[in-house]
Each structure stands twice: as C-alpha cells, then as structure tokens.
Design brief:
Strand order of the largest sheet: 1-2-10-9-6-11
Number of helices: 3
Number of strands: 11
Radius of gyration: 23 Å
CATH architecture of the largest domain: Beta Barrel
Number of domains: 2
Distance between the termini: 15 Å
Structural class: mainly beta
CATH superfamily of the largest domain: Translation factors
C-alpha cells in the first residue's frame, strides 16, 4: 500500500454540496508511470519511483527507451514509500487515488509561492505608522537596536528579506471529491504552491 500520492495543482474553484459553497483545490494525479522499484534488500527501503510524463508523450504507449533517458520523457521524478513492492511493475501507470475517498482527512505538502524581496508589512504583517499627525516613517520596520552598549540586533528579528519558496505542510484538510474519470482530486481549502506546482498528499 502506498503512503501517499503526488499530484499537480491545477488551481482553485468551488463546488456545491447541499446548497453550500465549498472552496476546493483541484489536483491532477494523472500520467504517473512507475520507472523504478526499490526494495529493502538492495536499497534499504521499499519504495516505487514515479515519473510524470511530458504532455507530448501522454498518448504514446510505454517504451523501455523512456527509462534510459528520464529527463527527455518525464518532467518530474519522485518516490513514494510502499509496504510491499510485489504488486508493482515497472512501466505500469499507478492508480494513486484508489486509497482515498470523500471525507478523508489528508496532509498536503508543497512549496509556497515566491514573493521575492518583501518588506515587513507584506512579509510579517506589520501595521505601519499612524496615518495622521505627519508621520514620515512609511513602511519601514522601525527601531531594531538592542538595549546594550554594542547596539546589536537580536537573532530572529523580523526584518525585510526573501519571502516564499519554503516547504510547508497544511494538515487536516478534507477530501471533497475523487473523480477517477477525470483523474482529479478535489481538496477543501487552499494548499501551498502556485498552479502547476507539485504537491504530496498523504492521509492525516
């Protein structure tokens, strides 16, 4: 049994359930092919290596030549731990969503959207100076010195800097719908990453 699944974030939309609007994130879990199998005797752990096919090769049947040049035929290569590798075969497509059903709680791991160099208002939510009485502070962070003779800055001080592009996990999200025909997964709420980014989903 697989411990999770890899999917590509398509974007967000909304669905209706008993006259209630539910915001959902849509994940594409199609076009993943098993490219390698790792077993505990040789590699120290049981896992399957998956490759996501490039769009131009999705309509073609699997060929052994694909395994000789993974970068040419696959846009992503990832691994998933499994309890037993006996039921998997190299070259076969993986039915990733078979272990999930509507109502399951899942944890979603992804890389947040990059925001470049951001100030303290955007990066840390600072409120800024008063809006009246002639304040000229603008969006600056304010005083950062420490109460000592050297005037050192304390480690961890919230200051401007690079924002985003960090791995984050959103826990306890609900699977709203699994659609095997369209090979998509609908998860309630927002998840890390921009449309097109990879996400790892596992049961909470």
């Amino acid at each position: 049994m697989v411990t999770g699944l890899w999917g590509k974030k398509i974007g967000m939309t909304q669905v209706f359930d008993e006259n209630k609007v539910i915001p959902v994130t849509v994940l594409d879990v199609d076009n993943w092919i098993i490219t390698n199998i790792r077993n505990e005797n040789q590699d120290g752990h049981n896992a399957i290596q998956l490759g996501r096919l490039r769009k131009r090769y999705t309509s073609e049947p699997f060929s052994g030549e694909w395994l000789k040049n993974l970068k040419k035929y696959f846009v992503h290569i990832r691994e998933i731990k499994v309890s037993d590798v006996a039921n998997y075969k190299i070259g076969s497509s993986l039915d990733q969503y078979s272990s999930l059903k509507s109502g399951d709680a899942v944890d979603v791991t992804g890389v947040t959207i990059g925001r470049g160099f951001a100030g303290v208002v955007k990066r840390h939510g600072f409120s800024g100076p008063p809006g009246s009485h002639g304040s000229k502070m603008g969006r600056k962070p304010g005083s950062i010195g420490h109460m000592c003779s050297q005037g050192k800055v304390i480690k961890g001080k919230r200051l401007p800097g690079h924002m985003g592009v960090k791995q984050r996990v959103v826990r306890g999200l609900k699977v709203v719908r699994v659609e095997p025909d369209k090979k998509v997964l609908l998860i309630k709420g927002s998840v890390p990453g921009k449309p097109g980014s990879l996400l790892f989903v596992k049961k909470a």
